[in-house]
Design brief:
mainly alpha, 4 helices
């Protein structure tokens, strides 16, 4: 019997989600994560909203779905990637 897919995996694969680099969220460099998300958001035809909104939404979606399964170190890296995304898209840093 095949393993049942989680709804979040289905959303990522079949919705207007971005086409992402493989293992993107496993990278250790927040800037590299942000740069890859920016590239995907600017080149993907599978998105709604602006490239910034799409990139930030995908990152937030991943953080929320991973939930308690993320170590504090991994969560901190991904939160720093949000800051890097804001820099790359010339958006003000969130207070």
């Amino acid at each position: 019997m095949a393993a049942k897919k989680k709804w979040s995996q289905d959303v990522t694969e079949h919705s207007d989600a971005l086409d992402l680099e493989k293992n993107l969220f496993e990278k250790d460099d927040p800037k590299a994560i942000a740069q890859s998300l920016k590239r995907s958001a600017e080149h993907s035809h599978r998105k709604k909203g602006t490239p910034f909104q799409s990139a930030m939404s995908m990152l937030t979606f991943y953080i929320n779905r991973a939930g308690k399964g993320l170590s504090q170190e991994r969560k901190d890296t991904l939160e720093r990637a949000k800051d890097e995304l804001r820099v790359l898209f010339d958006r003000p840093k969130k207070a």
